[in-house]
Design a protein that fits this description.
The complex is a heterotrimer. By secondary structure, chain A is α+β, with helices and mostly antiparallel strands. In chain A, the strands form six sheets. Chain A has a six-stranded mixed beta sheet with strand order 14-18-13-17-15-16, with helices on both faces. Helix content of chain A is 32%, strand content 20%. Chain A has 17 helices and 21 strands. By secondary structure, chain B is mainly alpha-helical. Chain B is built from twelve helices and no strands. In chain B, α5 runs antiparallel to α10 and α8 crosses α10. Chain B starts with a helix and ends in an 8-residue tail after the last helix. The two termini of chain C are 18 Å apart. Chain C is elongated, with a radius of gyration of 22 Å. In chain C, α4 packs antiparallel against α7. Chain C is mainly α. Classes of the chains: A alpha+beta, B mainly alpha, C mainly alpha.
Chain lengths: 534, 325, 276
């Protein structure tokens, strides 16, 4: 009975890997056609078209119905989906995609470069979150023939940036269902998506379920295997675990279950719990410092706070083996950009923390308190609220009193990024395979007030601004990587944000599933090869 | 005919209240930190300033508060509840989709609570201070002292996981599409645990009220007279006691129509039911003003209707009170 | 004296009183027995109860001592429940009494207000209030008080409606008694018993509302309330169920105590029961 969480997590990890390793044995089985795969759908979105909204909540459904030009393969390298090949001009201003022939939309119309042109110019550039930043300098998409799309940029676009961004930001929508049909955002197709993917949309009952069925005309031979996918809307995570155990749900991705339920299901031979297949969805836990507070504008205070937290203790006791110590804004799973030297790290040292605070002139007052800070934890993720409590507990030990301010999602973004009504904030930074997509905006100055997940800390550093700007247009891959190394070291030295923990989403899936978790963004991918054993 | 006129008058009299509520909540939510675009950005997990600005224009949030309020009221006059930000559909449609689950859950829970509350209350009062009373009262106390969500989760662990008798959540089984009677049975099966979870709490309250009123009425002069005249005990209970004891219970039904909708927020979240309660919670969190105001409008109509019926019942049960004044 | 004798005649009422005293004692002794901040990191998270003598009731998923939180939480929960109930019942009795006694336009106007509050599902209004004004213990308590008064107002009014035409009131009126005297001296004592029974219900609901808010992670995270502990335990409910179960039992006992005392008082106050 007295099983500690750590022991529980270790056992589950051991079982997960023992189940995952003998993948060869699965290879010998004959894939079975048929079956209904049920998926836990935790956070309903306002629409389902991934050309309009980049979030896992959309990909987990829309990514089975619509497809993108490029996805990531098992090794994390770009692999063509709707595009067969690509080529960049030496000046980096033109990138040409050759499209896959013989692909049709679910309504029978052929897929052509006109669809790519329309989607890129009207959706990616104008509406898609992050897409509008990525494609800011896209001037035109030329369509010399139905199977060629030529992207023209005003400034050099690094090919490896585009190819790493497109798996998330490169979903194509059917032009004929959008053009001339009024406001794109209000188009009913957004809630009944039409794509080229392995599954066709059937039905969406709000608050209950979404259903998609096999696309018999799918362009990959013999795919897909499943008859249907059913997404069940379950908002309570404990209830979702109950439904998994009752056999009503086969898969819960993106850490949809609680840490404790994940550990428990990991010990159950009917399930596999693992981080595998989520390498493309790495995130770091963050502490953001508001420089408007004079105490926090002092680098010694920011470093003291970092030294005051025993991160290995927190990881070991609260998060288990599914998390590890973070080293900087670029997580270690990013093979292309993770630097050899991350610059200064801040190991746990309470005495040093106290000394730094003393040096900064913040001596303990009555009751040992030096000063108080308002901490806003983001209201998503169990780990964020656990971490907020841990920050409160740890900083009390060095004389900083923390008041936790609880908010909901809208309130959090408004108070942190628009009203700047916080001293410390803690949440997640999502790394999207290339630092230019969603990482550097956390550090680059000049971000418009109110833009979420950007530098709103009142911190300006010309050095880092220059590194970021240079890297964004550097077409030489090696030079780009080196620049991002500089970026990480500078970020860790100045510490406007601290990224102490690195995590990958957890997948919980039935042991009957085959060909699962085989790409770095598997939960978002099309599942064309997924099948269910008897 | 008289009833209809009465109902019409009641509704007309409620209009100012309704408008006051809607304006009150509208203005209250303006004070909330963040708007529906902030909530949407939180849901998307990222976005840039241009996206946010476009979205604000799209949702009409770039107008002044008074212009927005004016627009809303003007639409309401034309019986248009507006467009839902979260659902991308007219609010009326969204509510119509969610209403059945909630009405079903509330009716089932209320009937369950009322029926068993009444019976157990009578049994307890008749055996006052003897063991049936002690047992029933203790159980009743336990039921309403238990947080509903806790009971719900525990019930899932026992009945869905260990015993596998009942489904753990959802409104109906969607992996197989049933029709007709089979489907009705399937939905009923899914509603057993939610009904118990929501209903037990109210049953405990009805039981206490029923028991209390019974005890009080049993001691009133006319009942004692009836008893001393040698009237059959059961007839005394039914004819005199029940009639009078029902008064406070009926009051409570009127009271709890609104409360129950609130309670269904938590229950619907535990059992992932697609009802109005969860919709209301989501619209608060997502700052979807139109949907929230729409729900308030509809639940206001519901509560007004229930209370009207309660008043009519009241007049029938207690001739000293006249309805309509 | 008579009242006390009547009260102590019921064993249930005595048990209720003992339980209430026990909880009050817990609240009073919290600082003595657990002088440390109950929210501080005390040890490894999720230690089972009775497995480590340092943590009799184990630790929660944030490594905080559950026993310390239970003792300190007794204060918070009694405070939230008590203050919210006082706010709620005071508003309710005043409005219900005035409406029921005066009738006509006073009744109509006050009932409009009551209806407005009732029409809004109370938990929904609570969510809106907390979303708008934030999750601090003060806002949560006041908000709970504000959303839960209509029931006692209705109950008081209903009693007043059926009492105001009774003979003893008529008699008082012919004697030329003032309205205030009639309302508070004559009718209210007779109308009070069901409201007192209901006040214990309000207190129970107040404590449960706070725990429901905490379940949705919307209560004040900086105080050691039982509701917060249940909310924290929600994530580990299926294995480490004790994290939620222990504060659940604490809530259950408190509500039980409050209700039994309420009921005992009602029975003792109710003059009609004397003849039994």
């Amino acid at each position: 009975m007295d099983m500690t969480r750590r022991a529980a997590l270790m056992t589950s990890a051991a079982i997960a890997s023992s189940v995952l390793f003998p993948m060869r044995s699965f290879g010998q089985e004959t894939p079975r056609k048929g079956g209904v795969f049920t998926v836990h759908y935790g956070a309903e979105q306002r629409q389902l078209n991934p050309s309009l909204q980049a979030s896992t909540g959309v990909y987990i459904i829309g990514g089975k119905i619509q497809e993108q030009l490029v996805d990531l393969d098992a090794k994390g390298q770009p692999v063509g989906v709707l595009a067969e090949s690509w080529e960049a001009a030496p000046d980096g201003r033109t990138i040409t995609f050759k499209l896959r022939p013989g692909v049709t939309w679910h309504d029978g119309k052929p897929f052509t470069s006109a669809d790519v042109q329309y989607t890129a110019m009207e959706m990616w550039k104008k509406i898609l979150n992050y897409g509008s930043t990525l494609q800011l300098f896209l001037t035109a998409v030329d369509t010399p023939d139905p199977l060629t799309a030529v992207f023209r940029y005003e400034r050099p676009m690094p090919l490896n940036l585009l190819l790493r961004a497109l798996p998330d930001l490169g979903y194509v929508s059917p032009r004929h269902l959008y053009e001339g049909k009024g406001d794109i955002r209000q188009n009913p197709v957004n809630l009944a998506p039409v794509g080229t993917g392995p599954f066709k949309f059937v039905q969406y009952e709000r608050g209950q379920h979404v259903i998609a069925e096999r696309n018999p005309n799918y362009w990959r031979a013999n795919a897909p295997y499943l008859d249907r996918i059913v997404w069940r809307v379950v908002t309570d995570r404990a209830a979702a675990a109950a439904q998994m155990e009752a056999g009503q749900i086969h898969y819960s991705g993106f850490s949809g279950l609680t840490i404790s339920d994940s550990a428990r299901l990991g010990k159950d031979p009917r399930f596999i719990v693992s981080t595998k297949g989520n390498e493309g969805n790495a995130r770091t836990n963050t502490i953001e410092f508001n420089f408007r507070r004079k105490e926090l504008a002092d680098i010694r205070v920011r470093r003291a706070i970092a030294h005051a937290l025993d991160i290995p203790f927190f990881i070991e006791n609260f998060l288990g083996d599914f998390a590890k110590r973070g080293t900087g804004p670029i997580p270690s799973v990013s093979a292309d950009f993770y630097p050899a030297d991350n610059g200064p790290q801040y190991p746990f040292d309470k005495k040093l923390a106290a000394k730094l605070l003393d040096e900064a002139g913040f001596k303990p007052g009555a009751g040992g308190t030096r000063f108080s800070l308002r901490l806003l934890p983001a209201p998503w993720g169990e780990d964020v609220s656990l971490f907020a409590t841990f920050i409160q507990q740890s900083l009390a030990d060095v004389g900083i009193k923390i008041d936790i301010v609880r908010t909901d999602g809208g309130g959090y973004l408004k108070q942190v990024y628009d009203d700047h009504a916080f001293d410390l904030a803690t949440g997640w930074h999502q790394y999207r395979n290339d630092p230019a997509v969603s990482t550097t905006v956390w550090y680059r100055s000049g971000q418009p007030k109110g833009a979420p997940w950007t530098n709103q800390w009142d911190w300006t550093d010309p050095t880092i601004d220059k590194i970021i700007d240079d890297a964004a247009t550097e077409v030489d891959a090696a030079k780009r990587k080196a620049l991002y190394g500089d970026f990480v070291r500078r970020a860790n030295t100045e510490l406007p944000i601290w990224t102490p923990i690195e995590q990958i989403f957890l997948t919980a899936i039935t042991a009957k599933a085959r060909n699962h978790s085989n790409t770095p963004r598997w939960g978002s991918s099309s599942w064309h090869d997924l099948w269910l054993a008897e | 005919m008289r009833v209809l006129t009465l109902a019409g008058r009641r509704l007309a009299a409620s209009i100012p209240t309704l408008i006051l509520i809607l304006i009150g909540v509208f203005l209250l939510l303006q004070l909330a930190p963040g708007d529906t675009v902030d909530a949407l950005m939180a849901q998307m997990g990222g976005g840039d300033a241009a996206t946010a600005r476009q979205l604000r224009e799209f949702y009409g949030l770039d107008l002044s508060v008074w212009a927005q309020l004016g627009n809303y009221l003007w639409r309401l006059v034309r019986l248009d509840l507006g467009f839902s930000a979260i659902y991308g559909k007219p609010v009326a449609t969204v509510i119509a989709e969610r209403l059945p689950a909630t009405i079903l859950l509330m009716t089932a829970s209320l009937s369950f609570a009322f029926f068993f509350g009444l019976i157990l209350g009578v049994v307890a009062a008749r055996g006052v201070n003897k063991w049936p009373d002690t047992l029933i009262s203790t159980l009743g106390l336990m039921f309403y002292a238990m947080p509903t969500f806790w009971f719900g989760l525990m019930a899932i662990v026992v009945f869905s996981i260990y015993l596998q008798w009942l489904p753990a959540g959802g409104f109906e089984d969607i992996t197989v599409s049933y029709t007709g009677l089979r489907r009705t049975f399937d939905i009923a099966l899914h509603l057993v645990l939610p009904t118990l979870t929501l209903g037990l709490f109210y049953m405990a309250i009805y039981l206490r009220i029923m028991r209390g009123s019974m005890l009080e009425v049993l001691n009133l002069d006319f009942v004692r007279t009836a008893r001393s005249k040698g009237m059959d005990e059961t007839r005394v209970v039914v004819r005199h006691v029940l009639r009078n004891a029902l008064l406070p219970m009926v009051t409570l039904i009127g009271l709890q129509a609104g409360t129950m909708l609130g309670g269904s927020v938590v229950v619907e979240s535990v059992f992932s039911l697609p009802g109005l309660g969860r919709l209301a919670y989501e619209s608060v969190i997502q700052r979807d003003l139109n949907t929230l105001l729409g729900i308030i409008f509809v639940s206001a109509l519901l509560v007004i209707a229930v209370n009207f019926i309660v008043d009519l019942l009241y007049a029938r049960l207690d001739p000293r009170i006249t309805a309509g004044n | 004296m008579d009242l006390l004798k009547l009260y102590f005649r019921s064993p249930a009422a005595v048990i209720g009183l003992l339980l209430l005293i026990l909880i009050l004692a817990m609240a009073a002794s919290a600082d003595l027995l657990y002088p440390r901040d109950p929210l501080a990191l005390a040890g490894r998270p999720l230690i089972w109860p009775f497995s480590n003598p340092r943590f009799l009731l184990g630790t929660d998923n944030s490594g905080r001592d559950i026993a310390a939180q239970i003792f300190h939480g007794a204060r918070i929960s009694l405070l939230i429940g008590g203050v919210a109930t006082v706010i709620s019942v005071m508003i309710g009795i005043t409005i219900g009494a005035l409406a029921g006694y005066y009738g006509s336009w006073v009744d109509t106007a006050l009932m409009r207000v009551t209806e407005a509050f009732q029409t809004l599902p109370n938990f929904l209004l609570l969510l809106v209030l907390v979303a708008v004004f934030g999750s601090t213990i003060t806002t949560v308590t006041v908000a709970i008080g504000i959303v839960s008064w209509p029931a006692s107002a209705r109950l008081t009014r209903a009693e007043f409606l059926s009492l105001r035409n009774r003979e003893f009131v008529q008699a008082g009126r012919t004697l030329g008694l003032k309205d205030a005297r009639l309302i508070f001296g004559e009718i209210l004592p007779n109308a009070l018993p069901p409201v007192i029974v209901y006040a214990s219900v309000v207190m129970a609901i107040a404590i449960l509302l706070e725990s429901a808010l905490a379940f949705l992670k919307l209560s004040d995270p900086n105080v050691a309330s039982w509701g917060n502990l249940i909310g924290a335990g929600r994530d580990v409910l299926r294995v480490q169920w004790y994290v939620s179960a222990i504060p659940g039992i604490a809530i259950l006992i408190t509500v039980l105590a409050v209700s039994l005392v309420g009921q005992g008082l009602n029975d003792a106050l109710n003059p009609r029961l004397k003849s039994r």
